[in-house]
């Protein structure tokens, strides 16, 4: 039955838009080069000597239902420190090149920053980040997305025990760890025009919490500000 369903999805993609087969996973890679050019400056009332910039380089996989989409490299920067003795942070930038969706005819997915982040880790999670995804294909309008800036996907990531925390270097401070969001909710597409229903069916959207995962292997380097 599963093979029949997979074959049907492939046929629909050829006739209409895209399908999402594929079985990729985040693989280990050499320590990347870090870019601090997008680091935001500390606020004017920042406590001196407490601020640093953190540059993230991640390799990830987004799974929607049973379909795995390798999202490739994602880069993220933010600054953190204290203001009046209290923790504070300023978001810098999220960079993600369009990632090819395996088994499709030119379709890709590009992650964008959704306007909210919280990187103060605690016992329950490592961080939170709002995202939305731009879907690109010759048959889709430019505004076709999964989630929007006004209604983004809210990702809460926890430590992935399969990729334990590792200190790569003390000078400069560089670490590696894995995170996973196993509760991500993925809504229907937005702004996809006449092919919206086909795109939703092929992607399996909407897909409720508990049916999706967002896994990343992340390197982080810290720079004092």
UniProtKB/TrEMBL annotation:
It comes from the Bacteria. Keywords: Signal. Residues 1-26 form the signal peptide. This is Secreted protein. It comes from Amycolatopsis speibonae. The lineage of its organism: Bacteria, Bacillati, Actinomycetota, Actinomycetes, Pseudonocardiales.
């Amino acid at each position: 039955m599963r093979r029949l369903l997979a074959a049907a999805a492939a046929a629909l993609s050829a006739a209409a838009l895209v399908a999402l087969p594929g079985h990729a996973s985040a693989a280990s890679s050499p320590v990347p080069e870090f870019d601090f050019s997008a680091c935001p400056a500390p606020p004017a009332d920042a406590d001196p000597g407490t601020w640093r910039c953190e540059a993230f380089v991640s390799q990830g996989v987004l799974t929607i239902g049973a379909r795995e989409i390798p999202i490739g490299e994602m880069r993220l920067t933010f600054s953190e420190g204290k203001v009046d003795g209290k923790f504070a942070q300023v978001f810098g930038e999220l960079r993600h090149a369009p990632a090819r969706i395996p088994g499709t005819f030119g379709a890709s997915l590009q992650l964008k920053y959704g306007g909210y982040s919280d990187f103060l880790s605690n016992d329950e999670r490592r961080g939170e980040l709002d995202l939305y995804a731009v879907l690109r294909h010759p048959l889709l309008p430019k505004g076709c997305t999964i989630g929007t800036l006004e209604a983004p996907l809210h990702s809460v990531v926890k430590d992935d025990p399969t990729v334990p925390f590792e200190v790569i270097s003390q000078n400069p401070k560089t670490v590696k760890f894995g995170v996973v969001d196993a509760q991500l909710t993925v809504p229907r597409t937005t702004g996809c025009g006449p092919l919206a229903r086909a795109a939703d069916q092929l992607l399996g959207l909407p897909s409720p919490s508990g049916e999706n995962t967002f896994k990343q292997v992340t390197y982080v380097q810290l720079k004092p500000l």
